[in-house]
Amino acid sequence: MLTTAVKRVARGLLVVLLVTIAAQALLSLTPGGVAEGILGENATDENIAALNAKLGLDQPPWQQYLDWLGGALHGDLGSSLVSQQPVREAIIERIPVTFELAFLGMAIALAAATVFAVVGATRPGSRIDRALNAVSSVFLSTPGFVAGPLLVYFLAMQLPVFPVLGWKPLSDGLGANLGSAFLPALAIAVQEIAALHRLLRTDLISTLGEDFIAAARARGMSGMYVMFRHAFRPSAFSLVTVLGINLGRLLGGTVIVEVLFSLPGCGGLLVQSITSRDIVMVQGMVTFVATVYVLMNLLVDFSYGLLDPRVRKVMTA
């Protein structure tokens, strides 16, 4: 068990390292530089060269990466080349917004998908199952940058239930905070509802056809009891895998929604850093997202043992 855990953690660290190398390589290929952006159009070549030397950007990319990596290994992700704000401090300031959006979006998607899947799997092929599949197909073909404006139009402008734009922190009250977060989270959740619904519905239908389900029904257990006590848990194996992958992806995928709703999260910071060619800030953000993604997948791997005793035996063997 310990050896397996160490191997998976080592693979995760290798993934993060390769992602940071790829990010540095891609950033070094982008045209222009941060010095030109800071000094403006009237900057002379001498001024640009002097600022590049001051910021350490006159070094080759591999040297810049090794200097950054040395600091990162000691917990220092560097400081923004534009604002001089420490990268770690900037991420900590904005991560609550991104985390809340991602987790709230996933919670909405999981709740809706579970209802859709249970109803559909109870009577597969029925009218309501086909209707839910049709709704799921519409959701699947509606990305966040399309769902966001539509939700704003109908739920914020036509029916002024939620604010159009902006963010209310928890210090303004839980209701105000959730009100400002609901539409962006729902825009994120739309496609996830469809993906999770289809996956869970298929697994539930397969599990409900097993012999032990027939035995439970023969003992007089109710349909809902059999569904949630005997069928749901073994059917959630694939669901947990996808949840872990999608949650890590959502943390990096909230960029468009945050920009669309003018939210002060990591997505807006990443876009701002890319447009200003703030290499250090972009590298820090990429490292953070990759680390969270790897951690989520490690948690999913270790949760398999809790869902299925057969996997626990293999991991401890």
From TrEMBL:
The keyword Transmembrane helix applies. Keywords: Cell membrane, Membrane, Transmembrane, Transmembrane helix, Transport. It is found in: Cell membrane. InterPro entries: BPD_transp_1_N, MetI-like, MetI-like_sf. The chain crosses the membrane at residues 101-119, 131-156, 176-196, 236-261, 281-307. Residues 95-304 form the ABC transmembrane type-1 domain. It comes from the Bacteria. GO terms for cellular component: plasma membrane. This is Peptide/nickel transport system permease protein. It comes from Actinocorallia herbida.
